[in-house]
Amino acid sequence: DQQVKQNSPSLSVQEGRISILNCDYTNSMFDYFLWYKKYPAEGPTFLISISSIKDKNEDGRFTVFLNKSAKHLSLHIVPSQPGDSAVYFCAASADDNNDMRFGAGTRLTVKP
Amino acid sequence: DVKVTQSSRYLVKRTGEKVFLECVQDMDHENMFWYRQDPGLGLRLIYFSYDVKMKEKGDIPEGYSVSREKKERFSLILESASTNQTSMYLCASRVGGETQYFGPGTRLLVL
């Protein structure tokens, strides 16, 4: 039962353009959402997070948007750079518990 | 910088063997986790531990056990490895409500 879904397994974007990665969740108890980035042969690294009391969080080129009514969040990367090419995982948890749920990941390729 | 290390990057084992995957973190984190990553399935939680000698089952604990004898070390044990346990295994740690820090992963192949 996948409570966090990333329906696009891959995304290809031209350098300099915007990358939009999407994530849907089913559990309305989730109140904390994160994006992780993973390069091959490395563990995932934290990228950006958002709590359910906000609908937007920005950190440099990365912005996460949360739409609670639609149970949807998205990660925007602008402008995209070739070094952003990686697998991006969406994750969610409820009440600061240890049961964090991850999506299947989206492989982003940014072409020069 | 938080550092989470895993004992092996690549491991090849035979069906039926007992396999130990070790994870060590150097930041005194209370919580430690073991995940496996499979294509199309993302990261699935196997076990986690919130304190020494404490453990909780995750989504897919069958065929695995864990050991946390010291705060910095969390071991994943495959009692009798099977081919469906071929996967990438990721260890993570965190303190309180902060984000998880992951190790580099162990790619296990069971023949």
Q: What is the topological layout?
A:
The complex is a heterodimer of chains A (112) and B (111).
Chain A: E1 4-5, E2 10-14, E3 19-25, E4 32-38, E5 45-51, E6 56-59, E7 62-67, E8 72-77, E9 86-93, E10 101-102, E11 106-111
Parallel strand pairs in A: 2-11
Antiparallel strand pairs in A: 1-3, 3-8, 4-5, 4-9, 6-7, 7-8, 9-10, 9-11
Chain B: E1 4-6, E2 10-13, E3 19-25, E4 31-38, E5 42-49, E6 56-57, E7 64-70, E8 73-78, E9 87-94, E10 101-102, E11 106-110
Parallel strand pairs in B: 2-11
Antiparallel strand pairs in B: 1-3, 3-8, 4-5, 4-9, 5-6, 7-8, 9-10, 9-11
Task: Give a structural overview.
The complex is a heterodimer of chains A (112) and B (111). Chain A is mostly beta strands and 112 residues long. Chain A is 0% helix and 54% strand. In chain A, strands 2, 4, 5, 9, 10 and 11 form a six-stranded mixed beta sheet that branches. A five-stranded antiparallel beta sheet of chain A has the order 1-3-8-7-6, with no helix packed on it. By secondary structure, chain B is mostly beta strands. Chain B has no helices and eleven strands. Chain B has strands spanning 4-6, 10-13, 19-25, 31-38, 42-49, 56-57, 64-70, 73-78, 87-94, 101-102, 106-110. In chain B, the strands form two sheets. In chain B, strands 2, 4, 5, 6, 9, 10 and 11 form a seven-stranded mixed beta sheet that branches. A four-stranded antiparallel beta sheet of chain B has the order 1-3-8-7, with no helix packed on it. The mean pLDDT of chain B is 93. The chains are: A mainly beta (112), B mainly beta (111). The A-B interface holds A 2, 4, 6, 9, 32, 34, 36, 41-46, 49, 89, 91, 96, 98-100, 102-105 and B 4, 9, 31, 33, 35, 40-45, 48, 50, 56, 58, 90, 92, 96-97, 99-105.
